[in-house]
Amino acid sequence: KPMIQLKNVTKVYDNGTVGLNKINLDIKKGDFVVIVGLSGAGKSTLMRSINRLHDITEGDIVINGESITNARGKALRLIRRNIGMIFQSFNLVKRSSVLRNVLTGRVAYYPTWKSTFNLFSKEDKQKAYEALQRVDMADKVYSRADELSGGQQQRVAIARVLTQNPKIILADEPTASLDPKTSRRVMHDLKMLNEEFGMTVVANLHSIELAREFGKRIIGIRAGEVVYDGAVENTPQEV
Ligand code: ADP
Ligand code: ADP
Q1: What is the largest CA-CA distance in the chain?
Q2: Tens digits of per-residue pLDDT, 78-87?
Q3: If you average pLDDT over every residue of the chain, what do you get?
Q4: Which strands sit side by side in the sheet containing 217-222, from one edge to the other?
Q5: Can you tell me which atom of ligand 1 is nearest the CA of 176?
Q6: 17 lines ligand 1 (CB under 6 A)
Q7: 50: how many CB neighbours lie within 10 A of its CB?
Q8: What ipTM was reported for this prediction?
Q9: Does ligand 1 come within 6 angstroms of the Cβ of 44?
Q10: In the chain, what is the straight-line distance between the N-terminal and C-terminal CA atoms, in Å?
Q11: How buried is 99 (Cβ within 10 angstroms: 0-12 exposed, 13-18 middle, 19+ buried)?
């Protein structure tokens, strides 16, 4: 069974704009899918629909066998625990340390929010440290998040998502604010999550070059519709 399934999904915004138009997609476990398309094509709408950050207008979205379309409350939280998010703007707590950012990300999915640093167990801290080692950020554990470069912040966000151990990673324009070299480094770390931890990755990218280099499957969207879906080798020059 697919990890993510979209069945005839349409999203019409309140003002009448069609964000997605009858999208059908099956994304299998362990895939690395890159979504490409021009600004306004519907990439973010697709991401927000999969994580149910908004209601869809028609159709159904199934995550790891569970429909998320009408899920609320506890059921929704349980489904969302399968999904880790990576954002364009990193979404770290700027004035907190790197270690603390990774630790609080880990508990954010659980009902009891541990508000005091000392309440984190030695084991939690060890796991956070190991995740930071995986992205080469272990020497920055006590740096404040806002002292880091953009690429470093994104790698901390990747360590944070790694400790959450989700089945799916949704990365919404993870490299949009980064230069090409740093972007490749961040994509390399997402690839690590995919290959070494078996996480299913869905990433929106502006750059077709990065999409070809890192994607196993490329989905092109235009005006809310899938216009290309296939292997990297046959990707058209433009979508
Ligand atoms: P991007 O193209 O990088 O995805 P946008 O500039 O399209 O970003 O959107 C930024 C934010 O503005 C999003 O949260 C989106 O929901 C919102 N937005 C985009 N277009 C509209 C619109 N026509 N009306 C209201 N909100 C919009
Ligand atoms: P992309 O991420 O590919 O840039 P979006 O998914 O942000 O595209 O937007 C798809 C379409 O939906 C665009 O026409 C955009 O203006 C519109 N849109 C996005 N968010 C909103 C919103 N909150 N309200 C109204 N229209 C929106």
Answers
A1: 53
A2: 999 999 999 9
A3: 91
A4: 83-87, 168-172, 200-204, 32-36, 217-222, 225-231
A5: 3
A6: yes
A7: 21
A8: 0.74
A9: yes
A10: 29
A11: buried
